[in-house]
Amino acid sequence: MTDIIDNKFNFCPKCGSKKIEYQDNRKWGCVDCGFKLYNNVAAAVGLIITDENGCVFFEKRAKEPRKGFLALPGGFCDPDETAESAADRECKEELGIEVHSIKYLCSFPNIYDYKNIRYKTCDLFFTAAVNSSASEKLINQMKVQKTEVSELCTKNIQTETDIDNLPLAFESARKTLKFWLAEKNHNKK
Length: 189
Hints:
Elements: E1 20-23, E2 27-30, E3 36-38, E4 42-50, E5 56-61, E6 70-71, E7 74-76, H1 83-95, E8 100-114, E9 117-129, H2 132-141, E10 149-155, H3 160-164, H4 171-188
Parallel strand pairs: 4-9
Antiparallel strand pairs: 1-2, 2-3, 4-7, 5-6, 5-10, 8-9
């Protein structure tokens, strides 16, 4: 993998000065004109979608970053979009299905290295379900967005070891799956 750029500007986007600095690990500031640009965290969503047998759906990523690794369905929130709407939209775009019973689960920070730029994200995770006909459709007919998803699979997750053995693309998904498993086991009691 290539080295990640330290997200720096060579010139101020407002006045063109070379005196722009990254300050406080959160913003750029221009010494000459006083311009401030905040390095805000991007919002992204992910879904733990289970089938009628309780197995979790995973996508094999078709592109970088982490091409070939498993990910939960999801993506970045668009401007003026709620996280719940983004979760629903991403399922329609990537998987070609509608999910139901979308419920907030948890959030974790994440790092998304893309084209030599490091993006910091706050990944908001939800649980959702599909009806059995949609579940079969996904696996058997592969109605997935080929630019995003090269393969779709389900995994039966019963223990943390099951999660640790998955080749997951993002650490936030690993933490979320462990949180989900703990919640699931707690609710069984």
